[in-house]
Fold this protein.
Amino acid sequence: MKIFLHICCAPCSLYPYYRMKEEGLDPVGFFYNPNIHPYVEYKKRLDTVKEFAGRAGLEVIYRDGYDLDEFLVRASGKGTGRCEQCYRMRLDAAGAAARDRGFPAMTTSLLYSKYQKHDLITGIAREMAAEHGIEFYYEDFRRGWREGIVESKAMGLYRQQYCGCIYSERDRFRKAEISE
């Protein structure tokens, strides 16, 4: 079965991709992440997905455009609710793209990270899949956390230090200042 895999970044997509292949699924990637800031970070992550896809033989669909403005409008002033807006924006786009291309199901590499809001992602992904008339494929990819890290390092893939959004980057530096 073909399955549409929203990819947040290459390192987080390794384990889900290989795991689904083991299960006999045929994942096709989808890269759409307007939350990533600054643009040079976005470009590094995009290029790393292309590098991984080429090595793995993974077909990836890239949504054109860097919709940072839309992300900022949706996330600004939401406090801790900004993550929900970010997940919703990306998973809605993935659901629509999967439906438009005739895929029966979708999932996301966001389910791999121990640092993301797993239950929130799962709920939104289920909602977006249903809204677009497709199935949501759920697996707790966090089981492969260590395996994915080891593999991405062995492949020499760029590994980012924050989720990608300007708020996460700010919080990363604030934590460093507090610990000094």
The mean pLDDT is 94. Strands lie at 2-7, 26-31, 60-62, 105-108, 135-136. Residues 2-179 form a domain with the Rossmann fold fold (CATH 3.40.50.620).
